[in-house]
Design a protein that fits this description.
By secondary structure, chain A is an alpha/beta fold. Chain A has 11 helices and 12 strands. The mean pLDDT of chain A is 92. The structure holds a DNA duplex.
Chain lengths: 332, 332
DNA sequence: TTGTATGCGTTATCAA
DNA sequence: TTGATAACGCATACAA
């Protein structure tokens, strides 16, 4: 158990009081320059590093932010988490990742992180129907929604413009000559799936295409469900020539299902995904996708949160919609 | 700022002293049952939750463990991290993920986490040549190597039996009738790459095959390098009929490269990977792979670490080699 | 078996 | 501009 240098020892070494050292540490402005220099010298000599825990005792802040995700092994979350971790660290914050397994109640998770005294929380997944829960956690802990957002909330959110994303996908397919376009979504409980569906719906109308419930799936996108749906749809005589999958992970399963059903991508069926996860750019997959601009989303969300945490009242962007970006590869 | 209930209030409510409450909290054995009940009742009534930070001040432990990874968006790390996060939480610990970007010096990272007063550290990536650094961090912070390990160390490690893994891959390929088997490895700085190469080498000898440097790559496995190597190797008249890629990520790039070079998998060239990341099981990819038994690795590593943290001196497994497992899919 | 008093390392309050 | 002193919430040594 190595002894850790404390503020007291620094004070003694520098010939000042502990409070003065503390003030230097916290950039308190009114310190005589010579004392400040002495203290800084002492800090360097003794290799002093402030004990964050003791600090937290008083300030109630921990310089760590909580990040709530459904499933960190989902590439979308792991890739965005990576940005968040690195950006946060640059700003002096650590990240506690809470993986809910897509099951845990948000209230519960927030409470938990709040008890850990995190300084702020980024929520990567939330139901559209989540009640306002501003009361649940200590109101001094800011929360920012990221990726998904509830219908009703007073909190800030940073999400992709999912409706527009679907429209871009359809515009692209229409331009390629497709007119019968299937859609594989997911539970309407999540704004990502819901908004992407709405965008699909509106675009189908706008482009004067036929809206056909038979080629739309809104089931939970398990591998099985996807396989079954694709098989059903492709074995119809008047089958769709394109499939929109609302995530890249779904799309990659679709790729397989298409091949299983003796069709070629993109010759017989075009496939387009959403999110642009890393694997999609692998040439073997080469998935056309509507990209979430993850880096920008993350930076916006984190900036907003840190603004809130640090009480910088300069304008906060409010709810932000990040524009999607079409990335055309070989599946369309 | 909601007021948080403290141990004092619980004490008052229960009609005992704060220390008694503390003792109940810490399962101190000699408490009169009736008092214990009263305290527990008070805790429930007041919804008291102990302040971990205050606890940490005294115990110097934080109930969080640090996890050092190269790149959390690498599926191997995100998938194992997920297990670690969830398992750790079940045991009452949180996980701080430190993403080094494959660049940062280990010493530095350890120091950083040590300053954060983590209770223990799992190191997911380390150079084979890393010096013993037992002195760097407070010796009261246990460290366990996971996935990779240095040549020389006093610390525990949990890794896959990588040599054996390569041998299994070759045995499988030989059994399928292959005799000219290419190998794509990576920097020998990492035990994963090194041991997998040694296993390859030994197995080639054991099976009486020809060891041919021309069909072995040990470069950093960037997408470009892989593409170039595969092209070179496949355009040889006497080309290999199988390629061992030392990670699934490499293998998936190989899959593409093979197709680019007008060969079929597995008809012309069989491909086998390592790790069994989630995407490999996607039927579209269907990659044959030597699986790291991630769940078992994680559990062993975490158990070892928690043993160390909690001073449970019952036998600790020491260095553990997890057996690999061959998963045959459609690429061989 | 229990209570009192002390201290963990820092910041905040107050007086000087 | 600085220092003494009191918190922060809990665990623990010691006394009872």
């Amino acid at each position: 158990m190595k002894h850790r240098v404390t503020i007291k020892e620094v004070a003694k070494y520098a010939g000042v009081s502990p409070s003065t050292v503390s003030r230097v540490l916290n950039n308190y402005p009114f310190i005589k320059p010579d004392k400040k220099v002495k203290v800084e010298e002492a800090i360097k000599q003794l290799q002093f590093e402030p004990n964050e825990i003791a600090r937290s005792m008083i300030t109630k802040k921990t310089k760590t932010i909580g990040l709530i995700v459904d499933d960190i092994s989902n590439p979308f979350f792991s890739e965005t988490s990576r940005f968040i971790i690195n950006k946060a660290r640059q700003r002096g914050y650590e990240v506690l990742i809470y993986d809910t397994n897509g099951e845990e109640e948000l209230k519960h998770t927030l409470k938990f992180l709040s008890n850990k005294n995190v300084s702020g929380i980024i929520v990567g997944s939330v139901s559209r129907f989540e009640q306002k829960h501003e009361e649940i956690v200590d109101e001094s802990i800011p929360i920012v929604y990221f990726n998904r957002k509830p219908e009703q909330t007073n909190l800030f959110s940073v999400t992709m413009d999912n409706k527009k994303a679907s429209k871009m996908a359809i515009a692209h397919l229409v331009q390629k000559g497709h007119s019968k376009i299937a859609f594989i979504g997911g539970p309407f409980e999540y704004s990502t799936y819901y908004d992407r569906y709405i965008g699909y719906y509106e675009a189908i109308i706008e482009f004067g295409l036929e809206l056909n419930e038979d080629i739309i799936s809104r089931e939970t996108p398990t591998s099985e469900n996807i396989q079954k749906f694709v098989a059903k749809v492709l074995n119809d005589k008047d089958r769709p020539t394109a499939i929109i999958a609302t995530t890249d992970q779904i799309a990659i399963t679709v790729l397989d299902a298409v091949v299983q059903n003796n069709c070629q991508v993109p010759a017989d069926v075009a496939v387009i995904g959403f999110d642009n996860i890393a694997i999609s750019s692998n040439p073997y997959i080469g998935l056309t996708t509507v990209s979430q601009q993850k880096r920008q989303m993350v930076e916006t969300a984190l900036n907003t949160l840190l603004h809130l945490i640090e009480d910088v009242v300069t304008e906060i962007p409010g709810d932000v919609l990040i524009p999607p970006k079409l990335i055309i590869r070989k599946t369309t």
